[in-house]
Please model this.
Amino acid sequence: MHLGQGTELELLRERVRDVASRYAPPRPGRTGVRAPEAADIPALREWTRLLFAEQLLGVNWPVEYGGLDDPHPLHESVVADELIRVGAPGPVGGGLLAAAAIIASGTTAQKEFFLPRIRSGEHIWCQLFSEPDAGSDLAGLRTRARVDGDHFVVDGQKVWTTNGQHADWGYLLARTDADAPKHAGITAFALDMSTPGVSVRPLREITGTSDFNEVFFDGVRIPAAHVIGEVNQGWAVTTASLAQERSSAGSGASLFGALDRLVRLAAQVTRAGRPVLERDDVRQAIGGFVADVHVNSLVSALGESRVLHASGDAGDAPVSKILFSEVNLALHEFGLQLQGHDGVRIEGDASVYDDGWWQDAFLYGRAFTIAGGTNEVLRNVIAERALGLPRG
Ligand SMILES: Cc1cc2nc3c(=O)[nH]c(=O)nc-3n(C[C@H](O)[C@H](O)[C@H](O)COP(=O)(O)OP(=O)(O)OC[C@H]3O[C@@H](n4cnc5c(N)ncnc54)[C@H](O)[C@@H]3O)c2cc1C
Model:
């Protein structure tokens, strides 16, 4: 039993476990929200199709596009949480986010074309929002789209595009009116990533992998029929779709697995011939992390319960996300510290602990404090929107 969740959701969790145990491709051994290898894409497309076909995903969509009549409000967050618990991957790419925008603001033709192809795994999407000088200040974006007959012509650059190297379509924000106040001159587009003039350049990260990309646009022509919502109303389109984007990270399902690994690690690492698990300071620290992980889980459950009872406020999601990302970072830093000099070994080195999982998790841990709004910006949200404090 999970706090605030009843039998219906317990049965759903069982169903996720069952489907995952029979059909899920293995989740890559790495932590976090990582882009897959090209060779894994066909299996992940098929897995995405199955998640929709089993009505584990897309349940909030209109019924004519495969949604349920009366879905439980926590259905999709429970599915995301349980997939992490059982070590199964989620759907590939950003199709759910793009679908939210298309459902809320798209034309009937867009819904009929895109939604079935997201469900079938045929279209992998990426999110083309952030730019080198527009991340937290997203409305400051400079990629331009100018009208040319029944097309828009796009020039500019995006960055941090997860899955950009695999995506068939991009959910793009571009400036269509340079003279309007910055939030008012932005338009949302569906961009076919194979259009001439789109170049995707993977970025190699400190973890050694390429999860993100730079994406360049050089005279890229997009049919006007692929504007999502109204021209110059892209900010409203994005705000509505982001509001529907539920992150499973905050539930902290992955932290329970990390705790198990931490205890195993402390039993393996030795000082003066004895496992460090026998040391008081190490046991104290592990006890502290156990408490933090449980508090995180309870705070997340409280947030969900407040959603269910329509009693939440603007601070709930930010509080959960800040708590999760900071406990996650501290736990992985501690795991690396425990290893002493051996902490500099990496995946593939002889006698590296847990095949380098800790090093990868440590290096990736910072990403959760940035993705989905940096923790500093989310603290501003709590201060201004939940507590009503004056803007800084
Ligand atoms: C794992 C991951 C996946 C991502 N995937 C995508 C993707 O698919 N598509 C996409 O478009 N983007 C993606 N991003 C980018 C992400 O949205 C941005 O990194 C994020 O919005 C922050 O922007 P920035 O990196 O430009 O940092 P900046 O906004 O430049 O911030 C730099 C620092 O200044 C601080 N700061 C900024 N403004 C304020 C303020 N008002 N008050 C206090 N402090 C402030 C920030 O907290 C941060 O510490 C991803 C990022 C990560 C980590």
In short: Residues 246-250 have pLDDT under 50 and may be disordered. Residues 247-386 form a domain with the Butyryl-CoA Dehydrogenase, subunit A; domain 3 fold (CATH 1.20.140.10). The chain has three domains: 7-92, 125-233, 247-386. The beta strands are 125-128, 144-148, 151-158, 169-175, 186-192, 198-202, 213-223, 227-228, 270-271, 274-275.
